């Protein structure tokens, strides 16, 4: 839920920024084609840009260091069962989210229904109205008997009664609507009608839709002005400054923004300001960087919670890792109905025992021994990261999974408190196979931290040491344990 709200807020900020950029720099320019494209792409950019992530080559995991100081075991998932009684605040949050979803969904349904009704009305008009005397190649022209304004939709033009107009004026009106058809403005209109239905709660989308409608009129006016005198056409616009009659999915000749259209007609021969258009590129790039940096900062804060110093071990030095699997442990002791199965639905016997460890930048080697360490080492000694012969749980990895399934438990108090998440424990396999230097790198709560430490410590004496050049050496491991609730 939090991720959804965060995404919606970021998207709203992006679309507002893009609209303000358009309003301040592009709105009064005569670059109609560019403005049309900008307005069509703005909602898509606003939806996609918050999802962008920092390029892999620049991600924090790849720039923080050069030597990994811990080998990470496969993540273990411990599944518990949430208590039936939920806190009142959580119940309220659920009910509020349901109400908000219903309200928002109702708005979408109503607006889409309105659009469908308008489309049906247009199809009805086409079925009952007679073709006009004047026809254009590839375009169907209908003469309206109803008191509707002239409009174009798809490849059809619907002409209102124009007895008060001269023949030249009628030709200009037809040329205007024909421009809408040739420029395929209908698809822009339907596209934005659907967008405003889906994003109806965002007022900026409605503003963008109106701006696009204005650009459509400017484009059509410019086409007419190429064939007719600007002064005569301006006079026609002034006479036809009437409100439309309620079929907004069409492209109408009579519109209330006549004054703006007259102003843009005077600017149509001006040279476009290319500099303003080029500013779009650095502006959008800047927005992308801002949101990418925010994601990187969020990732960095998580990493800082895990370690104080992170060093990366390159993939080539890590040898060829086998296919990764994710075991899921459902404890038996404090979760009566739980079952013990790997997450990939395979029995432990089916799992390969000698899979290479997945290397990730998770841990810094501890500098001082823990009180419970089985062996002592000097301050100068540091655990190895990668050795010729890696430490091995006696019986193999499948046996380790069976051991964990039998021994790990989801603390009852954590289940009742609704605590779920990741705990990362670090430990060192010493030269004699004993374990030492236990440390919680990422904490969830006191009970789950203690349980993760307990099960790791209980494996002491069950490991065979790693070797380098035939000599037993220390190797540091991390084991992520994910506690999940059903």
From TrEMBL:
Region of interest (Disordered), ranges: 332-379
Broad class of where this protein is predominantly found: membrane
SUPFAM superfamilies in the cross-refs: TolA/TonB C-terminal domain
InterPro entries: Peptidase_M56, TonB-dependent_transducer, TonB/TolA_C, TonB_C
Residues spanning the membrane: 6-25, 37-56, 94-113, 274-293
CC terms in the record's Gene Ontology section: plasma membrane protein complex
The UniProt record lists the keyword Transport: yes
NCBIfam families given in the database record: tonB_Cterm (TIGR01352)
Name of the protein: TonB family protein
Organism: Pontibacter cellulosilyticus
Organism lineage string: Bacteria, Pseudomonadati, Bacteroidota, Cytophagia, Cytophagales
